[in-house]
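Trying the structure run again after the queue cleared.
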Amino acid sequence: MSSEKRLIVNADDFGRSTGINKGIIRAHQNGIVTSASLMVRWPAAVEAAKLARRNPNLSVGLHLDISEWTCQNGSWSLVYQVIPPDDYAAVRQEVARQLAEFRSLMGCDPSHIDSHQHAHLKPPLTQIAEEAAQNIGVPLRERIGGIRYDGRFYGQSANGWPYPEGITPAALIRICKNLPQGITELGCHPSEEEDLDSMYLHERTLELEALCDPRMREALGRTHIRLCSFREAAALMPKPVGGSK
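Done. Tokens:
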């Protein structure tokens, strides 16, 4: 498998709004999205779960939602915080709650785990998310599973400045042309509507256009890249002893 190039195209924020839900499903049905990460705390998560069940080839993982930050004029500020991110007991309880809610909504374990704004890359969420992923036997973004994460398909700079040239079909094709061997996860954030309060808003509809551009599948074929879901990737991982099935 190491000599192959496999690409997981994963859409974050599934369940956050109706527009995002519609965009992710459209990008799955008519584009190259293979997986999505579900935010279980939002009202549209119920709708997202129903849509996922109608599209069984879409792998759905858990998008842990602890907080959100926004950037204006280069300055970051907190939008919301579910629990104190440095409170180990509170973080552990919230991860367990969100995992249980995912199972209630979807009727199964997540195919992978990641987090909103990559919060799981900082402790103590790192260790708690790693434990959850290991118990289930699924990948955790950039930590478990040996899957390389690629976040270059994004329409803003690190300080929140607009970067529309990063989410064009041409930019997406360039990213795919330079993929290394093995499995890569490409992050994305498509939406059909601008129906949420977010610093990353108009860019979502542009992402959707690029992900559904017919040139994308042609480019993947030319570069011999095989689309892959997180469910397929997780199936290649060793199952934990005594973990969830």
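The chain is about 35% helix and 20% strand. Worth checking whether this holds up in the mutant runs.
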